[in-house]
Structure formats: structure tokens, C-alpha cells
Amino acid sequence: MSDTSSRYLESPEEIEAGLEELRGDLLEAIDPPYRDRFREIIELTDAFCREHLKPFEVEFVLCCRLLAGACCQEGTPIVEGRTKAKTWAAAIVYTIGWVNFLSDPTFEPTMSSEEMAEAFGLSVGTMQRRSVEIRDGLEIIPSDPNWTLPSRMRENPLVWMVEDENGLVVDIRTLPRERQVKAYEAGIIPYIPDDADESMDLGFPPEAFAAFFNEVEEEGDLVEADDAADPEDPVIGRIGPDDS
Question: In the prediction, which pLDDT does 106 show?
Fold first, then answer.
């Protein structure tokens, strides 16, 4: 992946083109029998995010598409069960909202579980039960770096916590830039912290598309970051759910 930390997708046209490219990549990674299910679900999640989750609707669309792609794989209840697409769509949006504290009124946007369930025409319990299935299946945790909104990566400490060769958890932002570059090139962190400036909070980093997509294998499982890391490098991988 090239170093594009200094450039951001600022125009709506660029953003929509990036989302459409991501949609195509995800479809290719999904087995043909499950592609219609994926299209059905993201049509619902896209519409919901764009209507209800402004001004971060694009980031929610991005995360929901990626999560739908990870879920629409052989052997999952989303493609093999009889539950309606709108139920899974609601569960996917709820899961991304849960990771990013959507129900917390101190964040923007904010939306309660009751409001979301009502918008989808479901009970809160049904939506939450399906979300638990997704979270358990993909080992998703609160503030999960794999599913954090791109604009919130800077403030999420779990994004920057990595293990060194001694098994110690360190904040990579405290390490020299060359270590940050290696971690970035290995896909462990979304961008190089020392290269970021205040504009990071105002634009939409194009590497976020790649960073998020690289977390999803063709089989739909999350990629372990330390698989791509140099074993001789002090930074070997992002901490996982059992380490946090």
C-alpha cells in the first residue's frame, strides 16, 4: 500500500467512487450464491445510514458494507438462515454503532437502541440478539480497531496499542517513526501517526478504505495483523480481544 497519509478524499464524488470500488471488491470476495443477500442487506444499511447518521453517514456506510461482506459467507446464519434481511441489516448497523458508542449522547451522531429498532420495524431484543451473534462470531469488542469509524481512529487508543517482541503492550505513537512505518506497511495501523496533522480530523483518508478492506479475507474472517509483520521487528501485531 502506498503512503497516502498526506492526501484525503474531500469531494463527494471521490468518496462515492471509493465506496463503489469497495462494493465491487467485496462482491468479488463473496461466493456467487451469497451476493444477492449481500446486495439486499447493504441496500438497507446504506439507506439507513444516509438518512439517520449524518454527518458521519459515509463512514457508517463504509463500516456496514465491510461488516456485511464479512458476514455474507458460507456457513453463517446470515446466508443460511431464514431471518429477514432487514433484521440482519439492523444488527449490522447496531453492531457498528455499538463499537462506536452511537447511543452515547456525548458523541455525534447519537441514536438509541429503541430509535434504531423502530426505524427498522423490529423489536430491540431481536436486533440486539442478532448483533450478539455477529459480535461473537467475529470477536468484535467495544472500540474494536477493525470497526472504528475512520474519523475516530486518532482518538481510539486500541488502534495504536501493539505488542512488542517481549509481549509488552505499547502505544506505537511513542515509538520512532521507522517503527510506525513498518507497522503501517504490515497493515497493523491505519496510517503513520507522525505524518498526521489536524487535517486528519477534517478529511476522509483513502487508506481507510484499504485498511478496513484488508481486515476481511475472502473467506470472511478477520486477518491477524501479526501474520503480515516481520517477526524480527519489535512491533509484531495489534492487540486482540483477549489482550484488551
Answer: 87
* Position 115 pLDDT exceeds 70: yes
Helix axes 124-138, 57-71, angle to 10 degrees: 70
What are the extents of the domains in the chain?
A: 12-238
If you search the block for the grid coordinates 471521490, which residue do you land on?
Answer: 14
Task: Give 123-153 pLDDT, tens digit per residue.
Answer: 999 999 999 999 999 999 999 998 999 888 8
Strands of 237-238's sheet, edge to edge? 169-171, 161-163, 237-238
Of 146, 94, 152, 156, nearest to 124 by C-alpha is 94
∠ CA 62-63-65, nearest 5°, is: 70
Task: Tell me which of 59-73, 122-136, 179-193 is least confident.
Answer: 179-193
